[in-house]
Amino acid sequence: MKKIRHGLRAIRRGLAVSFHWMKKWVVKILGKLKSGRVLLSIAALAVAFVIGIVVSQAWSSDSSDGTPASSAGPSEADSEPTSSPSEPDDESTSTDPPTTPEATPAPDPSEGSSPSNPPDSTDADPAPTPTPVVVVLDQEPQTYQEALEDAARLSFDIVWPSACMSPIPHPDLLPNAPRTYRSGIHQGVDFRCFARGHPAVAALDGRAVLVVGNYEDPDSDERDLLLDVAAQLDATPPYTLLTLYGNYVVLDHGVVPDVGHVVTIYAHLESVDPDIRVGDAVQAGQRVGEIGNRGTHAAANGDFYTDPHLHWELHIDNQYLGAGLTAAETRFVYTTLFAEAS
Ligand SMILES: [Zn+2]
After folding, report:
1. How does pLDDT run across 184-233, given as a tens digit for each residue?
2. Of the residues 77, 105, 134, which one is the last residue of a structural domain?
3. Residue 329 covered by a domain
């Protein structure tokens, strides 16, 4: 097969050269003579030229179909595009998250029922496009008043999850602060510790529902790749966010009356305490682990000592407390939340 293909390529190249010379010759003759006979022969040459192009195109499509190792003969190759009609559908779902501003209307899913249409040239691009995983929660954000009321109710039971620097006076350490490095916004509160060895403790009574204590930081190239995807999407996909948490613990506090289902997250831990296990009850104030910087830029460069801080989140009914509020409102909500905290 290879030899035949090489032979065909050589013939094609030869034809191309001879056509080139024929063209030159025709131009020359045209310049000198304009008799009917010459014009007739030129017409004949033009017809031969067109036939030559058609033949060479047929060969070229044969050779391109033959490049992937396939046992299918050239006559069966025409039906090959029908084997990949799902590709355009995959792409349409992957570029259609509601949080992606450039989302285009979803193509008609019935496209798959016309497999005879060959995929167009963009679908043939072998480079994989990022596939965002977006959890759609069709939920109205809380109003400022609702967030304040929930914060006030929770404030009677809550304890500070860390005794490190209070984040309340620093908008950049509170929810809704931009996090441009990952094309997203902060959903939690950062307690900066400036040194290793500080504990993170449960903010409320609850139960451990997710424990990641064996996290391995990506190297900086791998981390950059994840952040590149976020930049392309103009949003932080959930899997990227989870990667950036490092070691982390999720505590479920159940449904708090007049508030809703409350969950807290403790991230960037250097380590999780061994007695924090999925399913086990945890008391407010109980230590969950050591605060570190796992999942951060420094850790991706092998430095586990720079800027250790607890990234702490409080979610009510699947939304972080203060979602959608202004910086000033957010600050007041969290001031209220910790007003009574010990
Ligand atoms: Zn944070």
Report:
1. 999 999 999 999 999 999 999 999 999 999 999 999 999 999 999 999 99
2. 77
3. yes
